[in-house]
Amino acid sequence: xxxxxxxxxxxxxxxxxxxxxxxxxxxxxxxxxxxxxxxxxxxxxxxxxxxxxxxxxxxxxxxxxxxxxxxxxxxxxxxxxxxxxxxxxxxxxxxxxxxxxxxxxxxxxxxxxxxxxxxxxxxxxxxxxxxxxxxxxxxxxxxxxxxxxxxxxxxxxxxxxxxxxxxxxxxxxxxxxxxxxxxxxxxxxxxxxxxxxxxxxxxxxxxxxxxxxxxxxxxx
Length: 220
Known about the structure:
Layout: H1 3-10, H2 18-32, H3 38-54, H4 68-78, H5 84-91, H6 95-98, H7 103-110, H8 112-125, H9 137-147, H10 151-166, H11 173-193, H12 197-211, H13 213-219
Helix pairs in contact: 2-3, 2-4, 3-5, 4-5, 4-10, 5-8, 7-8, 8-10, 9-11, 10-11, 10-12, 11-12, 12-13
């Protein structure tokens, strides 16, 4: 085991409880085991420990520790058999934006490839528009695709949105509708364009259910 990995593992005590932390990682490890070797799974675990400590004290609106979200994002991507760097970046995708971690620290611990993916997701989140016309869904989709040099950034963002949609029930009704509309207008077409039909179908289904609950119940 490398010195860096040893340091990361020693920091597990900073997470509220080691057993609770492992509870969040164990399902992901099981999903990875058929196609990622043990060294790769350990690398993903190192990212989990690093991310859990970076997000310590932060919670989702559901009350769960925040680390549950990036792990769920990684698990969605593991279901697509994404590579190790993508999985590590998925677990770390919010650390630059939401914690004190800086890009250079990610480079030092996990390498330039992972840092570039995390940075790419952060930049997509920070897109701002100068006018309403520029902010239209079609323009937003074009800007997202044009900004991204590595399609894995888009895949992480789609998985991030999918998990947010799966946990939409804890949001205020107005926020649920806004996120659902955005999902149908922006993220569902991107998933379709990339041929990710299972993601597209689930995003579309949940978006429609959130926007038109009565019609959804009748049709289902």
